[in-house]
Design a protein that fits this description.
The relative contact order is 0.14. The longest helix has 25 residues. The chain has four helices and eight strands. It has a single domain, classed as 2,3-Dihydroxybiphenyl 1,2-Dioxygenase, domain 1 (Roll), CATH 3.10.180. It is α/β, with parallel strands linked by helices and 167 residues long. It starts with 17 loop residues before the first strand and ends with a helix. A hairpin with a 2-residue loop joins strand 3 and strand 4.
C-alpha cells in the first residue's frame, strides 16, 4: 500500500503567519472576542507561558507564542512597533472594527470603500499587531480597476503634496 504525505499538513496553507506576543494568553481571548477565532491548540510551559498556540480564523490558521527573547522571538512592543500586518476577510468588517475598538484596539484607519472593491478598516491590537479587516463588496473589472487606481494615485499625490507644503 502506497501513501503520499503532502508537504503541507492538513488544515494549513502554504503561508501560515506566526506572531510573537507579549501576553499571548490575553491576546488569544482578544482574537476570540474580536475576530471569532477558535483555539485549535495551546502548549504552555510550567509557568503558563504560551510556547505555541494555533487559532483558526475563518479558513486560516494563525500561530502565536509569548516572547522568547533568548531565541530571538520578541513582540512589536519590544521592537517599538511592527513592520507587518495581517488582513482578515470577514462578513461584516464594520462590526469587527467596532469590536476591536471596544476591546482596546487603536483604530488606525476608519472603514473605507477601497477602489478594488473591498470595505476595509485598520487597527492595532493591544499587543502591537496591526490588522486590516475587509469585506469584499464589489467585483471590479480590470478596466474599472485601472481607472480607479489612476484616480487613487492622483488623489494620494495631491495629499502628499499638501502635507509637504504644511510641514
Amino acid at each position: 500500500m502506497s501513501t503520499t504525505t503532502s508537504y503541507i499538513p492538513k488544515g494549513y496553507a502554504s503561508v501560515t503567519p506566526a506572531i510573537t506576543i507579549r501576553g499571548a494568553a490575553k491576546a488569544i481571548e482578544f482574537y476570540k472576542a474580536v475576530l471569532g477565532a477558535k483555539e485549535r491548540e495551546r502548549m504552555t510551559s510550567d509557568d503558563g507561558t504560551v510556547m505555541h498556540a494555533e487559532l483558526e480564523i475563518g479558513d486560516s490558521v494563525v500561530m502565536l507564542s509569548d516572547e522568547f527573547p533568548q531565541w530571538g522571538y520578541v513582540s512589536p512592543q519590544a521592537l517599538g512597533g511592527t513592520g507587518s500586518g495581517l488582513r482578515v476577510y470577514v462578513p461584516d468588517a464594520d462590526a469587527v472594527l467596532e469590536k476591536a475598538k471596544a476591546n482596546g484596539a487603536r483604530v488606525d484607519r476608519p472603514m473605507t470603500n477601497e477602489f478594488w472593491g473591498d470595505r476595509t478598516g485598520c487597527f492595532t491590537d493591544p499587543f502591537g499587531h496591526r490588522w486590516s479587516v475587509s469585506t469584499h463588496v464589489e467585483d471590479v473589472s480590470p478596466e474599472e480597476m485601472g481607472r480607479r487606481a489612476r484616480a487613487f494615485k492622483e488623489e494620494f499625490a495631491a495629499k502628499e503634496a499638501a502635507m509637504a507644503a504644511n510641514a
